[in-house]
Amino acid sequence: MNLTPKMMVGLASLSLLVLAPIPSHAQVTSLGPGVLEYGDEDQSGAGPYPSDPKAGATLAGLAPGAITQGPQSAGHDEFKTRPSGGDFAGTDTIHVGSTFTTLAHDGYSYQFLTGQAGVKGPDTFSLDYSSLLPAGQTLQTLTLGIAADDFQAPKYGQPFTATINGIFSAGLTNKLNNVTLTDPSDLFFTFGVDPALLTSDRVLKLSIDEGGEGGDGGDGYAVDFLTVGVTSAPVPEASTTVSLGLLLALGFGGLLVASRRRKVAAA
Ligand SMILES: [Ca+2]
Ligand SMILES: [Ca+2]
Q1: d(Cα 204, Cα 212) in Å, to the nearest integer?
Q2: How much distance in Å is there from the Cα of 223 to the middle of ligand 2?
Q3: pLDDT value of residue 14
Q4: Residue 108 alpha carbon to ligand 1 centre in Å
Q5: Distance of alpha carbon 235 from alpha carbon 239, whole angstroms
Q6: What is the pLDDT of residues 119-143, one digit of tens each?
Q7: Would you say 183 and 108 are in contact if contact means Cβ atoms under 8 Å apart?
Q8: pTM: predicted TM-score of the whole model, two decimal places
Q9: How far is the CA of 91 from the centre of ligand 2 (A)?
Q10: Nearest bound ligand to the CA of residue 155
Q11: d(CA 150, ligand 1 centre) in Å
């Protein structure tokens, strides 16, 4: 069979599709160049948001420690906060703090206490962003987005603690301890992560617990979805450029010598 130009274009498109990076986890989707979303936007299983929860938030390019956020949702049925099967690991799941015993401050922790739903913290997430950094590109900034659900530290006085790749994050912890997401309601915010905290495997490990500083872990919480946005630049190739220049110089030198030899031979 002879390939027509149209068929060749089709085959080229198909090969591009095959070469495109395939997410290694369920529910990892692209939100555009340099941004991945982990999990689905469904108010932790309760149903769709009335409007884009990410509106107004910056998904990529934040400086370390900078914070932006979307609109806080009006609230949802707390008994619908459930993973639906196939949800990104750690999302849509009620958590209580790791220090929880029997004191339930809110509806989420009451559901855990009575065996209806939920698990003990910490809530952990493994966010693989390696597909955002193709070969030859080096990371400049990383912006982490979290859709927080029912965090209520100002109301109940039970502090949350967040770590990034095992390192305590004061900025992220401070943000989680200063939102009151009663009813429960959801708030998506983004946070500029210090690149010094990142690891060479390009997987960000986030952990959120509650109950530190003598807290009782009785303020239940959940995370609906997360995002990672990366800005990058070409890897500097100064040494390669020098080597290339040297090779070119040697090559030209060799050609000149060969040219002179030919002229001598011809004379
Ligand atoms: Ca709560
Ligand atoms: Ca969700």
Answers
A1: 22
A2: 7
A3: 42
A4: 6
A5: 11
A6: 999 999 999 999 999 889 999 999 9
A7: no
A8: 0.81
A9: 6
A10: 1
A11: 4
Radius of gyration of the chain (CA): 26
Q: Which ligand is nearest to the CA of 92?
A: 2
DSSP string for residues in 60-111: S-PPTT-EEE-PPP----GGG----SSPPTTTT--EE-TT--S---SHHHHH
Task: Please give the DSSP secondary-structure letter assigned to residue 236.
Answer: P
How far is residue 215's CA from residue 97's CA, in Å, rounded to a whole number?
Answer: 9
Distance from the alpha carbon of residue 167 to the mean position of ligand 2, in angstroms: 26
Distance 43 CA to ligand 2 centre (A): 6
pLDDT at 10 over 80: no
What is the percentage of the chain residues whose pLDDT exceeds 90? Answer: 75
Q: Which ligand is nearest to the CA of 47?
A: 2
Residue type at 49 in one-letter notation: Y
Domain range summary for the chain, segments of one domain joined by +? 21-234
Rounded to the nearest angstrom, the distance between the alpha carbon of 222 and the centre of ligand 2 is: 10
**pLDDT for residue 22 is more than 80:** no
CA 266 to ligand 1 center in whole angstroms? 92
Ligand nearest to the CA of 38: 2
Ligand lying closest to the C-alpha of residue 107: 1
Question: Rounded to the nearest whole angstrom, what is the distance from the C-alpha of residue 25 to the centroid of ligand 1?
Answer: 28
* Whether the bond into 122 is cis, omega within 30 of 0: yes
Predicted local confidence at residue 3, as pLDDT: 47
pLDDT tens for 40-82 read 999 999 999 999 999 999 999 999 999 999 999 999 999 999 9
